[in-house]
Amino acid sequence: MQPSTPTTRIIEVDEDVYDVLARTAATRDTDINGALKYLIEAPAVPAAPTSDNDEE
């Protein structure tokens, strides 16, 4: 099996998305690609807090 050749992909995003990526890159001391990698690898956060039956 031959190794795959890396390809370049261009993805267009809204200006607001680019702003978030740029701020994330700045706080992580990296570039946009580093920010994307960080955000892709970050664990999922639940949208709603989980409730514990023991909290009563």
Structural class: mainly alpha
The ordered H/E elements are HH
Any idea what the shape is? extended
Unreliable sequence segments: none
Explain what this protein looks like in three dimensions.
By secondary structure, this protein is mostly helical. 41% of the residues lie in helices and 0% in strands. The protein is extended. The model has no long low-confidence stretch (mean pLDDT 83).
Keywords:
about 55 residues; mainly alpha; single chain
List the SSEs and their pairings.
Layout: H1 15-27, H2 32-41
Helix pairs in contact: 1-2
Quick recap of the structure?
The chain is an all-alpha fold and about 55 residues long.
